[in-house]
Amino acid sequence: MACALFRLTPEEALAGVTTHAATALDLGDSHGTLETGKAADFVAWRIERPAELAYWLGGALPNRVIRNGVAVDFDSFDA
């Protein structure tokens, strides 16, 4: 939605919900980027470039979800 409504690039939108969001919540030291020592919470999709995320709004499910460094079983996933 950030891409469509506010004309952000996909890279800007992803930074907004990861790095910048963690910084805004004063969690930048432990969250927001994939680095050693930080919380390992992330989602992986089968895409070739970030722009594809904007096209699949409400569409394709993630390929893999990692929460607290552990893969989430989609059958028991409770958002």
**Low-confidence sequence ranges:** none
Distance between the termini: 20 Å
- The helix content is 25-40%
**What characterizes the major β-sheet?**
3 strands, antiparallel
Indicate the overall shape. flat
What is the strand tally?
3
Strand order of the largest sheet: 1-2-3
Order of helices and strands: HHHEHEE
Number of helices: 4
Mean pLDDT: 84
Q: From the alpha carbons, calculate the radius of gyration and give it in angstroms.
A: 14 Å
In percent terms, what proportion of residues is strand? Answer: 5-15%
Q: Into how many domains do the coordinates divide?
A: 1
Broad structural category:
alpha+beta
Describe the structure.
- The structure is a single chain.
- Helices cover 30% and strands 11% of the residues.
- The chain has 4 helices and 3 strands.
- A 3-stranded antiparallel β-sheet has the order 1-2-3, with no helix packed on it.
- By secondary structure, the chain is of the alpha+beta class.
- A hairpin with a 2-residue loop joins strand 2 (64-67) and strand 3 (70-71).
- It is flat.
- The relative contact order is 0.15.
- The protein has one domain (2-70).
- The chain has helices at 2-6, 10-17, 19-24, 51-55; strands at 42-44, 64-67, 70-71.
